[in-house]
Write a structure and sequence with these properties.
Helix content is 85%, strand content 0%. It is an all-alpha fold and 130 residues long. The radius of gyration is 17 Å and the shape is elongated.
Length: 130
């Protein structure tokens, strides 16, 4: 198993742990803890799939396939997470809070940075540049 997946699991557990420890503070800010936990789980799964597609793209000899897979992984991640956030807002109706959406977007940025950093490091090492 790749080292990235261990870091991904550690990040997932850390975010859930922080959510549990500070659940009262998050609730006072109007953040839905269940939506945060489900969003964190969805992001971890999507990031694992996106990383897998990106990893396959880096080692593919054709540049077109590299571009196509990288764009596909990015598009899938944005689309699935966007639909999930819209579904949350639709299901909660007037009860949804902007702070929950902002927290989910912050988690998206954190997971994307971790994934991009790992793929960039892999691309540098595969091309011979250090």
């Amino acid at each position: 198993m790749d080292n990235f997946y261990f870091r991904l699991i550690a990040l997932f557990c850390a975010v859930n742990g922080i959510g549990i420890v500070f659940s009262h503070a998050l609730e006072s800010l109007g953040i839905d803890d269940l939506a945060g936990a489900l969003g964190n789980l969805l992001l971890a799964i999507i990031t694992a799939i996106s990383y897998y597609l990106g990893k396959k793209a880096i080692y593919h000899p054709k540049h077109q396939v590299f571009s196509r897979r990288l764009y596909l992984s990015t598009f899938l991640k944005i689309f699935i997470y966007g639909v999930a956030m819209a579904g949350y807002a639709f299901m909660r109706g007037a009860d949804f809070t902007r702070n929950t959406i902002l927290m989910l977007l912050l988690l998206y940025i954190v997971y994307s940075i971790i994934e991009t950093w790992a793929l960039a490091k892999m691309a540098r090492s595969s091309s011979g540049h250090q």
